[in-house]
Structure formats: C-alpha cells, structure tokens
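Entry 14. Two folds queued back to back today. First construct below, sequence then structure tokens.
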Amino acid sequence: MNVGCIPKKLMHTAALHKEGILNAFDFGWNLGELNNPKLMCEGELHMKLFEKFSWEALVKNVQKYIRRLNFEFKANCSENNIPYVNAMAALQDKNTIVFSPKREALVKHLESHSDSPNPKEVGKITADRIVIAVGGRPNILPDTVCKNARELSITSDDIFYLKTPPKKTLVIGGGYIAVECAGFLRTIGYPVTLMARSIFLRSKFEK
C-alpha cells in the first residue's frame, strides 16, 4: 500500500483537480486568470495554473497520508486482536508458515528440516487455509541489457517519492501503470513521452 494504487490515485486526483479548476468557469466559478477563457487562450490557462502547482507539497502530503493509513491499519489489527507480523516468511508445509526478521535464521531453519524452530529466532503459524497475497515490484534492466539504466532511470514506484519535480519524462511501457503515470504527469503539466513496443493496454488474451 506504500506504493502502487493508493499514491497513484492521489496523484491522479491532483491532476483531476487541475481539470476541475479549468472547467469550473462554465459552471459559474470565475477564478480570473486561472480559468477564464475570455482572458487567455487554453494553453495560457494551463501554464498559469501550473505555475501555482507544488510537486513538493503533493509528494509530502501523499506520503503523510500513506503513513497515517499504515498506522490505522496496524491499530485496527490490534483493536480486533489480529496479530501483525512484519518479517520474512516461508511455507514449511501446506499448513505452516515460519517467519523471522533475519533472513539467515529463516534459511538456517528451513535447511535443518526441523519441525520445531528456535522460538527466539524463528516464529511459526499454523492454519487450515493460508492465503498468499504479495505485490509485485518493478525492476530496472541490468547494464548488460540496457546500458546506464540504473543510473539514468527510475521505476514507477520511485515517482511517488521524488523530492523534486520530474520535469520532462519518458515513460517506457504501454501497460496500465505506464499509461496512468503518463496521464497524471501530463495533466498536471509536465511534458511526457510514452514509449511502447507494441499496442497500448494490450489484453493478455490478445495474440
């Protein structure tokens, strides 16, 4: 929840607010040079409104909201007697999960094939049903595939933490995350180029 849907939706909402201000004139809201088409052409209105935008404030408030949301989730778990464990874990068998904050301790236990882990280092939870719900992480190509990729590029996750505005951006990919990020950046006012090798938003069922 720290990256992905929630911060992306918040930044998309920032873009929608800009569109709302620009369209507000037709609904009776005359904000002068910020949205009055009688005073300026459409391009000038976009630029005038963009001058009032603060990327730093947006990122700060998005991260503040995420921290509050994380705290609320943990608090709700505690209030409802739901144990919360922040650790690395592995399936010992179909009904058992072993976990530890130390990777080495977890690997050592799994290699020992013991049913009883050291409780000081490795915890254990058993259940009739185990649901695995993990999020994916974007990866930057290694230099052997794309030279200087790690030095000159960031992932879609990183954009939510940028302390300075992205300015001119090249978004590589035509999936929904790429299109959404390109969309809110461009709507806010930053120049964006979207690069894809095939069809935008192509369905996985297409051949």
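Second construct, same run, same settings:
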Amino acid sequence: MPKLLPATRDERRLQILNAARACVDEHGLEAVSMEMIIAASGLSVGTVYRYFAGKDDIISAAVLGGTTGLAEALAPVLGQDDPPPPGEYMGQVLRAIVSYGSRGPVDLTRVALHGWSHSRTDAGLRAAVESVQRAARSQFAAACRRWQAAGILGADADPEAVAELLLSVTLGFVAQRSLAGGASIEAHAAAVTALLRAPAR
C-alpha cells in the first residue's frame, strides 16, 4: 500500500475531527459514540483507529485544535498596540470569534460548551484551555491600561478586574450563541461602551 502524503493525512485527520464536531453539535457529547463518528466521517473503522485511539482521544484533539486555532485568530486583535475604544475593541474580538467559528462545516461556537466541559476531565487539555484564557485576560488588561493612559477608561478602574469582566463577556457571548441560538455583537459592544465609559471630568 502506498504511503499517504502528509497533506492527505492532515485532511483525513481533519475529516475525522469535523465529523466528531458535527456529531457533538447534533447529539451532545455524552450521546456521541465512536460508531457515530466513524459513520459521519465516511472513512473505514481501521482508518479512523489509525489516527485516534477512541472517542475521548478524538474529542480532546478537536477541542485542542479549536482552542489553538481560536487563539491564533484572536492574537492580532487582542494584541493591538493601539487598541480602539472598548466597545469597538470588543466588537472586533467577537467578530473574530464568529469568523473563526464559522470557517468549517460546523460552527465551533455552537460546540464550544461541550469542549469546555470535556476539558475538565483531561488534565493536559484543561491546562491548554486555561492557558489560552489566561493569556486573553492578560491582553485585555494591557488594553485597559492603554485606555486609562488615553483617558478613555476611568483612572480608578482596576485593569485586572475589567479584564476579568471582558473575558466573561467573551465567554458569555459564546455561551449565548450555543444555548440561546444567537447573540448580537452590536449589543455586546454597545453595552461594553456604556459600562466602561470614563466619567466626565
């Protein structure tokens, strides 16, 4: 049997991961079985098991890949040297999340909660997810300090506390898309503007 090219191996691996995400989106994490994933992938049993040891292995890889990819997509927005005002900034963050989540055949924001839940049972995956979220919170805090220096955010605001709020807004937006069938970027951006408006001098 001829050896597969690396690009073909990557495509098949992604095919399996996307099949798992579709199954989780449709049935929920607990109801999904290895048989479901194999059937949805369109690949043979042997092929799927050449790539992954079982369901938990596939789900962990799907969550890690999604988390890493999202962090890469958010990096240019979160790390701006001269971030726009808070509402506009959060609008950019949320649009980047929606754009990344909708790139593939399954909306990753719809299955994110399942992934976060799964990460609590896998120590390595949990550490990776927490690391990404801590990094985002740190970048939010850096943006807050820049807003304070520019007089956009009140001088008495605690950048670390505001960063926690902005991370909660971000995660809550994803949760609303998953649980409530949608969430408005414009509404979130306007609310952040109202909450973080600097007091009149």
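Quick look at the second one. The domain at 59-195 is CATH 1.10.357 (Tetracycline Repressor; domain 2). The mean pLDDT is 92.
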